[in-house]
Design goal:
The protein is α/β, with parallel strands linked by helices and 334 residues long. The chain is built from 10 helices and 10 strands. It has a 5-stranded mixed beta sheet, with helices on both faces. A hairpin with a 2-residue loop joins strand 7 (139-146) and strand 8 (149-155). Its cofactor is Fe(2+).
Length: 334
């Protein structure tokens, strides 16, 4: 039984993963309302709230599953990447629990948690596959041979796609969090009203760039401030089309027939439709986590930690260590 603790940014997540029963419990507390008035995440406030939420959430998950701390055989926690203060809270809680219970603990890579989240579903992808990780802080294409065997094929050279969504939403005067608000507004827009560029598709390679697209949206809004919905739609279409083109290239380049899409932006329905259509044309299978596991959560950390702890990997030191910057390619293979 592995307990997972997620605290990389503004959501406190707890999960319990059993070697035979799979995911048996999870809970999440989102800090959206706390940060809403600031228009973005305030790191110090995020850290303070994790301190208040972590232990009560652990107790609540254990109570819901009729378990006690003595039933846990390992503790996994997000060690990075993320906000340093927030990571320290989760790692301190997890390491302290593991030390007091005399059980192993392991620091998990946050993006590996996202990458493996589709394995929580009934129908799971088989290795090897190509993964598209799209979130507020990351946009990357990865060739995944096995757990821990990752090669980054391409990544954003500036804004992550989730960041671009949020910044464009702010330009349009939408609420926080901006990404979902922009996607909702885009449903009312006309896809033919504006034609936005598809950045970096006219050159070889699998890297991304979204800052110019954000600027194009700002300039268009300055000229046509009454056409918010159409601008939102044009922006969303440009982003999803760009991601699809790069995913198609990645599948062709690697010869893979499976695509895994994860991270907060993977919840975007327009993106899913675009990638599903591409998959049908390419003869490729496309897998996503369920909506509740697209954003940060403790279930994915419990799973990722369980897969490594069950193979004997653990953080041997009692020191509380984090890695706010951490490459997936540095991870040890399982």
């Amino acid at each position: 039984m592995t307990l997972g603790v997620e605290s990389s940014c503004d959501e406190t997540g707890i999960g319990l993963y059993h070697s035979e029963k799979g995911l048996i419990g999870h809970q999440l507390f989102s800090q959206v309302e706390i940060h809403c008035e600031y228009g973005g995440v305030v790191p110090e406030l995020a850290s303070r709230d994790h301190i208040q939420r972590a232990l009560p959430l652990i107790k609540s998950v254990l109570a819901d599953t009729h378990l006690t701390l003595s039933d846990i055989s390992g503790v996994a926690y997000t060690a990075g990447p993320g906000l340093a203060g927030a990571l320290l809270v989760g790692s301190a809680v997890a390491k302290s629990l593991a030390w007091s219970l005399k059980i192993p603990s392991l620091g998990v890579h946050h993006m590996e948690g996202h990458l493996l989240a589709p394995l929580l579903e009934e129908k799971v992808p088989s290795f090897p596959f190509v993964a598209l990780l799209v979130s507020g802080g990351h946009t990357m294409l990865i060739d995944v041979k096995a757990i821990g065997e990752y090669q980054i094929l391409g990544e954003s050279l500036d804004d992550a796609v989730g960041e671009a969504f949020d910044k464009t939403a702010k330009i349009l005067g939408l609420g926080y969090p901006g990404g979902p608000a922009l996607a909702e507004l885009a449903q009312q827009g006309d896809a033919n009203a504006f034609k936005f560029p598809r950045p970096m598709i006219d050159r070889p390679g699998l890297d991304f760039s979204f800052s110019g697209l954000k600027t194009f949206a700002r300039n268009t809004f300055a000229k046509y401030p009454e056409q918010k919905a159409n601008i939102a739609k044009a922006f969303e279409v440009a982003v999803t089309s760009t991601l699809m083109i790069k995913c198609r290239r990645a599948l062709e380049q690697t010869g893979r027939a499976t695509l895994v899409v994860a991270g907060g932006v993977s919840a975007n329905l327009a993106l899913r439709q675009e990638l599903d259509a591409m998959g049908l044309k390419q003869g490729a299978q496309v897998f996503y986590p369920r909506q509740e596991f697209c954003t940060d959560n403790g279930a994915m950390i419990a799973l990722a930690g369980h897969l490594r702890l069950s193979k004997g990997q653990a953080t041997n030191s009692d020191e509380i260590t984090i890695q706010p910057r951490w490459s997936l390619e540095d991870l040890e293979a399982v």
